[in-house]
Amino acid sequence: MSQQDKEPRGRVLIVDDEKVILDLTAIILKNRGYQVFTALSALEGLEVIEKERPELVLLDYMMPNMDGLTALKEIRRSYPDTYVIMFTGKGSEEIAVELMKAGASDYILKPFNNQDLVERIESVLKLRGIELQNRALLSERERLLAEIADWNRELERRVQEKSEALRRAQAEVVQSEKLASLGYLSAGMAHEIRNPLNSIALFVQLIKTGLDEHERLDYVEKILKEVDRIDNILAKLLDASKRPKFEISEVRVDRVLEHTLDAFTPQLRQKRIRAVTDFKSIPPAIKADPMEIEQIFTNLFLNSIYVMPEEGTLAVELEGDEQWITVRVSDTGPGIPPENLPNIFDPFFTTNSRGTGLGLSVVLRIVKTYKGKIEVEKSDSLGTTFLVRLPLAPPR
């Protein structure tokens, strides 16, 4: 195989305004297997670098128009992968030091020894190979570190998402267990207490028919009222524990909301509370028991009206998409204390001295019956927003 068929040892550009030196240096390097380009001026040399991108430039310091120092700085700025060896006149070591500081890889004094020239070129090209390899390794290291950082951020995000999903799932399991426990408790209480209550009511009615004294009649009336009150509490316990009789039909949630709000008109007027509705879209009807759907919002409206001072605002927002009906019920009350938020759906939990603590438990039971979701979306000193989501598809 001839020298011409071999892979060149490297591409070298020689820039010198002395043609004799240019041609001599080119012959030396070509004989050593280098691919050689030549230029008689710095400007011409920069054009060759732009086109050919040689690994090395042999650059003369003393040249007209643009001197070697200016050309060196431009090469290092625009073509950092191209290394430079400077040619300097004999006795110009101070200039050589300045050139090295400006970015030259080496310098050679004129006139030069041919073997020394070749050894210097080989040394600089070897150094260039090592530095470029190190630069590539550092770049790869930075890329890998950035990739690892991205992976860590993604992992942290996924762990946070899974942890939050697990927390919500655990909370739902706890709520379901509480509702199940309430079911056993309330069903047993209802069956055990209702029978004697019926007897008490019957005996009181008999006593009432045989008495004339106004005072004793008044006393009997109070007994009957207490019996009714206990019976109502038991009825609410049964509602919270199990699904009562129901009739499935086509239910338009927007109409249920309007009807339920109308039912609260007297209470709203009494406290001068403004009711605001925002039906962003009217979702299609769902298959449900209208009384159950109405009970959801009756309890939510009742809670909101109770906690609000006079001249508050009750806001109802409705929207739907292809999968869910979303209703937001907002008030301008004082908000739910953070320590109470985990317990608001618990049976018997209430901050109302006159309440039973079963309203939101009933709401939770109904919403879960329809495979829906309910949560406190926001609660602070400006008020509370409950978010209710009901699926458009019927529960299976």
UniProtKB/TrEMBL annotation:
Coiled-coil parts of chain: 127-179
Matches recorded under InterPro entries: CheY-like_superfamily, HATPase_C_sf, HATPase_dom, His_kinase_dom, HisK_dim/P_dom, HisK_dim/P_sf, Sig_transdc_His_kin-like_C, Sig_transdc_resp-reg_receiver
Protein name: histidine kinase
Domain Response regulatory: 11-125
Catalytic class of the enzyme: transferase
Lineage of the species this protein comes from: Bacteria, Pseudomonadati, Thermodesulfobacteriota, Desulfuromonadia, Geobacterales
PROSITE patterns: HIS_KIN, RESPONSE_REGULATORY
Spans through the membrane: none
Residues in Histidine kinase domain copies: 188-394
GO molecular function: phosphorelay sensor kinase activity
Modified residues (4-aspartylphosphate): D60
Keyword Membrane in record: no
Keyword vocabulary terms for this entry: Coiled coil, Kinase, Phosphoprotein, Transferase
Pfam families: HATPase_c, HisKA, Response_reg
EC number: 2.7.13.3
Reactions performed catalytically: ATP + protein L-histidine = ADP + protein N-phospho-L-histidine
